[in-house]
Design a protein that fits this description.
The protein is an alpha+beta fold and 117 residues long. 42% of the residues lie in helices and 14% in strands. The model has no long low-confidence stretch (mean pLDDT 96).
Amino acid sequence: MKNIFIEYPKCSTCKKAKKWLEDNNIEYTDRNIIENTPTIKELSEWINKSGQEIKKWFNTSGLKYKELNLKEKLKDMSDKQKIELLASDGMLIKRPLLISDKGILIGFKEEIWKKWK
């Protein structure tokens, strides 16, 4: 599997992560999270593979997350409902995402990405 880099092009953190990938000569396929939002099937597979709880996949600093009052609502939702919600709007998903055979990275923290490399 080729590395898939899922980003929102206007996001400054995504830009930093993309530069890091390029500076480290890591090949990837670029995917816009708004134009090509991950599907329920993809998210289910990736969340399972990542070993992270679903709440880590939410963009908690995003306007949409706050507008929908998800901090409160997520407590009463099933995992299936949470995944369906994530798949409904790319802006709800924490970004960038790096999907690879080596693992899945959520958000960009250089020290974590260095270990992945």
